[in-house]
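Dissemination and training. As part of the outreach component of the grant, students in the summer workshop were shown how a complex can be specified as a set of sequence lines and then modelled as a single object. The example used during the hands-on session is reproduced here so that future cohorts can follow it. Participants entered these lines:
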Amino acid sequence: MFVKLLLLFISASLVNNVVLSRFLGLCPFLGVSKKVETAAGMGGAIIFVITLSSLVTGLIYKFILVPSGFTYLQTIVFILVIAAMVQFLEMFLKKNVHSLYEALGVYLPLITTNCAVLGVALDNVQKNYGILEGVIYGFGTAVGFAISIILLASIREKMEYNDIPEAFQGTGIVVVTAGLMAIAFCGFAGVI
Amino acid sequence: MAFGIIMSIVLVGATGCILGFFLSFMSEKFKVETNPKEEEVLAALPGNNCGGCGFPGCSGCAKAIANGEAPVDQCPVGGAPVAAEIAKIMGVEAEAKEPEVAFVRCNGTCENAKNKYEYSGVNSCSAMALVPGGGPKSCSFGCMGFGDCVEACQFDAIHIVDGISLVDPDACKGCGACAKACPRNIIEMIPKSSTEMVLCRNKNKGKAVMDVCSVGCIACGLCEKNCPSDAIHVVDNIAHIDQSKCTGCGTCVTKCPRKIIHIIGDAPAPADDKAANATA
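and obtained this result:
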């Protein structure tokens, strides 16, 4: 059981990395990866939201939607839950970690529409995961997101010192870097 | 069928209600005290979000003022009335600040500064850096008249008249957006009460200026020598008036051989007058 969950975690975080091999949640990946500090904050926020929302959506799906036969309402109910989670996170950060709240700016409420978050909730249903498996899967996916955004941010910080051809400056070189990272992450494909 | 629809509504509604109660409970628990002055100051500001104050929009300015990081008269658009209102909110005395107005330091109209060639292409001053010879205008310092400033102005206060930009001083709020937009930096922010201005920015030597424009500053220095209040100086081959010292006597206007110093508000001198000077 434990080995199975560990494998699930590794597969979700590295092999099927949410950003670099499934291409979900690209907006904050490119938007908040200028500084390692804010990237780590964003990664933390995503871990919190995805883990908690996969728990809550799993519970709602198993104990409300399935017994009452309204499984087709999953998308709208999940979105409601995710939006509420993000709102709660925003309040929490505003009160306790105000500097991070300001650094994340508009990207914080945008987690609501981050397809990675909804993607995990819907994946859990599609793949018939139980509550615990769902939470581990969500946590792994979110850790994968955090890993890739922190990696990209540290590369971008170093890139600031480089002499980049004018045509590639700004977003151009970042997208090229992200593409190369995606190729590198293909190397995990045979691990499990 | 109807049962299904009603049940879906009830289910989603109930989920929404529960989450709503959860959030409102949490919002009480995680309440953050915001500075009430900040909102009052924001309400007093004009709300154009023009960025003329140097902050990102009116809310940024309001925050800085409420925290005492910026003076109450930070907003150049609102001017004295808004400063007085904010001063009342902040409980301090507002210092009287002279409102500023944008001024285009060029008189190279279609008549005075000819074009080098016929140009038909992108209508943008900033694009002229890529065009051969820096654009069709003969003078490489003067107004090109493609209207980047007109686009930048939120108050409809600057227009292209006779090939160059012209500021309507009554409509200008002094936000400085046009001065930032001008790639040739020929728009200067001056106090509204200023009476004299040099209408040229050409830093070339006399002969080179004469070749391209009939109303260019040749840096002869007559204005500098004759100014009784030491307000006008020729730096980098161009005369510049220090508006804080200028008394408005008008000596420089009469002494200037090229008639490039104008009394603001007056119509430019007749064109044939300048043409005679150019050939002389």
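The domain at 36-90 of chain B is CATH 1.10.15.40 (3-methyladenine DNA Glycosylase II; Chain A, domain 3). Students were then asked to discuss how this feature might be tested experimentally.
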